[in-house]
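Please think about what follows:
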Amino acid sequence: MNRPEQGSYHISTAGGETVRAFVPHPLPPVPPLELLGTHQRLLERATHAVGRLDSVSVLLPDPQLFLYAYVRREAVLSSQIEGTQSSLSDLLLFELEEVPGVPFDDVVEVSNYVAALEHGMARLREGFPLCNRLLREMHAKLMARGRGSEKNPGEFRRTQNWIGGTRPGNAHFVPAPPSEVDASMAALEAFLHNDTDGMPLLVKAALAHVQFETIHPFLDGNGRLGRLLIALLLHKGGLLEEPLLYLSLYLKTHRSTYYELLDRVRSTGDWEAWVDFFLEGVEETALGAVQTARRLVSLFEVDTRRTQEVGRGAPTALRVLSALRQRPLIGLSQVCQNTGMTFPTASKSMQQLVNVGIAHELTGKRRNRVFSYAAYLEVLNEGGNL
């Protein structure tokens, strides 16, 4: 459905130029969304897929193992959309403090993303509301180190920003002027807290994401935080027990369509086309995550049987395999910490896993060696170019 333009233009000055900055109307859209027929079927399919994803804990012997790796996969993908070149292996190596030499700037941005998500989830579990204060706290974590750390982490912007172009005057889009950011974000917060509107949670998440990106309330990091907002909403609203639904790969794959639909919402009010795209992404992403979990369960079962056949050292080798499941890139000192083994025992057991092709030594060093659970990483990397 086409509606009037979904906001108003305010004359703003930025970089010595006069620009038209877009201030979105508060949500929900007027007139209301029409989610009938095909729209409703997409919503039902997406909701069903999310339900299957929420039950993934039934498949996995320890859902936290999957969550640890999947959150980091998402951190890499979301950061790649913003232009970083860091890989999943870079991030996991960076988290091993004993391994120097990992490129700092890109990987620290990814590490910050993990910290922001974990902070947000911890606060929600404490009973803290999903509100602007929490978003500012998460932004402070997101921008704490590396590029952008000088751009007022944790604070809504007080200067004009823009999207695309080399300056405000030739920008593709100029978000709300700083004088309107607080009011626009307050209206978005009110929409998030409105439990009486009868709007399905997936639809609310779709609308909230667009509104956040349109306001662009921070000087940097808006894209990453706007994608995190989706995961937090679905968890807070009860659709997902754990934050396992991340659309970064879908949005990265369909980037041009994504930006085109954001523009259409603002200019023509075609929220329905955006919601359809969003719901298709939710279904595709949720089903993909379920398939990934199933593949990991199968991998763990096969490798457990292989490890049980190594001979007398099988019990300790199984403990090392368990440590690799927790951290698919790991050093021997961390294996000792996680298992309580002595260093010689851990080294001997890891070598048994190397001999049967489960573990792979990465560093070629006699000391501070790092090992990978390569098959696990390959499952996570599929389709994401990580």
Observations:
- The chain has two domains: 7-32+84-291, 309-381.
- The first helix runs from residue 38 to 54.
- The chain is about 60% helix and 5% strand.
